[in-house]
Copper chaperone PCu(A)C (Marinospirillum alkalitolerans), 162 residues
Amino acid sequence: MPRFIVLLASLLVLFSAAASAHDFRLGELRLVHPFATPTPPTAAVGAVYLDIDHQGSTPRRLISARAHIAEVVELHDMSMHDGVMQMRQLEVIALPAGEVTRMRPGGGYHLMLIGLKQPLVAGERFPLWLTFADLGEIRVEVWVESAAQGGAAADAHHHHHH
Ligand SMILES: [Cu+2]
């Protein structure tokens, strides 16, 4: 009986994740739809993406991130150098005032989960803490879903609010 209820609850979570997006607010920052793409069972790394909609007039900076499911979380940028995709660690991610900083699989900014303690399974969720200079720390919930699904949900969320 209890097993049946747990199964039903997890199906409901999957269903709602497919149909919606989520966001968080810290001061004038709106943190839109944090998501992570699924990983193979033995993967040591993963990546988190979110859009940061900065609706204020003072430039802000994301300075660190952490999560229970990874030993460290690094701020990364991925770009092409001489035809090769390369990732580099950033000290900060600068957030220009009045702009949306987008993170998407395939290139650019992302949050790298290093020393992953468990695989990222589609439909599951996990907490992540983000620290911004002068604004402090906020806990957000990361949804594990495909690159296409996560990107589409984040895009749709912007259209909905603007
Ligand atoms: Cu990376």
